[in-house]
Amino acid sequence: MSADTRKQVTGVSWLKVLIRILVVVLLLAGAIFLQHRLASFFPLSVEVEKSTPPFTPARAAFIKREELVVDHPSQQVGGSSSANTPGVLFSHRGKDFITVEAHFESARLGKDIVDLLRHDSELKRLPPEDRQQISYTTAEDETLTSRGTVKPPGQEEPCRTSIQVSPTQGTQLPTYVHFYPVELGSDRHLVFEVKAEGSDLEVELLTRNSTPNSSGEIQGPGCRKALSVGDWTYPNPFSSPLPLHIVVPAGTSFGFTFTAFRDKTPWSGESSYEPFELEASPLSASAVRKLTQGSPSTAPLFSASAVEGAPPLVLKHLVVRPDEVQLDFSGKAMVQESGKYVVTFDLWEFTKEYPLYAIIISTLITAFLNWLWKIAFRSRRVEQEPKKRGTGRNKKPKISVVP
Q1: Do both 88 and 15 map to the same domain?
Q2: 235 versus 303: which is more confidently predicted?
Q3: What is the phi/psi pair of residue 374, to 5°?
Q4: pLDDT, mean of residues 251-257
Q5: Are the C-beta atoms of residues 333 and 313 closer than 8 Å to each other?
Q6: Distance in angstroms (rounded) separating the CA atoms of residues 305 and 308
Q7: How many helices (H) and strands (E) does the chain have?
Q8: What is the mean pLDDT of residues 50-66?
């Protein structure tokens, strides 16, 4: 088939309406697909508190074996810490009628506590100074009352246990901090654990009441604590206004248990209380992620990463509930769920924010649709070129016959 013949066949086929409509449909589908791909390639940042629905707080559920990870925590500009003393990572002030217990997977007592115990004449041997399992628990109130060391509940103010977690002296804030529930709790019993990477931590525990008795002794419900380090146990439950320092190496976990006193519930009508809050303000982070416990290499179930060039995320507080741990934060972030960006380019939102660009885009879209309409439904006009007139030289002379 010659080129002229193919051109004629193509021209005849193009005159058919169905073929023109099919071509237009393919072009329109290609444009829609391109717009979809452009949207997926252009993720957008979002204010995590102002979005609908908001992306904060991040939640890690016990039943799903989830954990929350704070990436590269840092002190905000204007904080009281310096480069050599990063300051407090997080803390808890303590609550009335809530006992606090701590358990450490592998840790050691601080040097100040060991030095203090050296002067205790009642001790037959000192606790181990290497890494051991450490527990800091509340002694049974019934045992203490029978010994006459504690007055009946209600006659003395209850003790509060405060918690303060900081990097060890001379070190920086950790690279990652993990928070996760390790036990299904109740409205009277909550448990969670913490693990830091990249820096050793120092945990300070202080149990005391606000109004000691006339003799200055620390007495009241929840004041007496039992301390054990490996196979070593302090001989008797103790109470002291001095803080207990415990050094936790990087990569090892430690946990806290919050238990309500029997028949002493300061809340009313609530199914749970909130005993733990992240109070080390101002504290920031480059990202907040949710992972499956024990699977850090997999894609995060949820992640909110600070926008490059923008301020980092601001951590507000951590709330421990019976079945989950919640981390409330704020800031502008790129949000992903299961490895996919949640907020991407939206033409409608873009046009509302940039009306001038919207006019230009709408004009181009209108022109494109008009062009498609013409291709699909406008009949093709076939205009034959006029025959070229011959030159005078080739014209035959007109002969007129005169009768």
Answers
A1: no
A2: 303
A3: -65, -40
A4: 94
A5: yes
A6: 9
A7: 6, 22
A8: 92
Residue 229, both tokens = 């380090």
**Among 266, 281, 296, which residue terminates a domain?**
281
Using alpha carbons, select from 371, 364, 382, 381 the residue that is nearest to residue 23. Answer: 371
Type and span of the H or E element at 27: helix 17-41
* Whole-number Å distance between alpha carbons of 347 and 358: 9
Of the candidates 138, 130, 131, which has an alpha carbon nearest to the alpha carbon of residue 107?
Answer: 131
In Å, what is the CA distance from 140 to each residue of 66, 150, 221, 261, 373? Answer: 33, 11, 10, 11, 85
Contacts of 146 (CB under 8 A, 6+ apart): none
Residues 203 and 243: their CA atoms lie apart, in Å, by: 10
Kindly state whether residues 23 and 144 are assigned to the same domain: no
Considering the domain boundaries, does residue 169 fall inside one?
yes
In the chain, pLDDT over 70 holds for what percent of residues? 63
190 phi-psi bin (left φ>0, alpha ψ -120 to 50, beta other): beta
Amino acid making up residue 105:
E
**Cα 24 from chain centroid (whole Å):** 46
The model carries a pTM of 0.73
Distance separating alpha carbons of residues 13 and 21, to the nearest angstrom: 12
SS3 of 293-341: CCCCCCCCCEEEEECCCCCCEEEEEEEECCCEEEEEEECEEEEEECCEE
Q: Which domain holds residue 146?
A: 80-281
CB neighbourhood size of 333 (10 A): 26
Pairwise CA distance, residues 387 & 351, whole Å: 54
253 has pLDDT over 70: yes
Same domain for 223 and 148, yes or no, is yes
Same-domain pairing of 33 and 92: no
Q: Say if residue 125's pLDDT is above 60.
A: yes
11 and 94 inside one domain: no
- The separation between CA 109 and the C-alpha centre of its own chain, rounded to angstroms, equals 32
Domain assignment of residue 144, yes or no: yes
Q: Are residues 187 and 273 in the same domain?
A: yes
Same domain, 125 and 210: yes
Average pLDDT, the chain: 76
Residue 169 to residue 15: CA distance in whole angstroms: 84
The domain total for the chain is: 2
* 230 closest CA partner among 107, 99, 378: 107
Owner of token pair 């073929």: 19
pLDDT given at position 97: 78
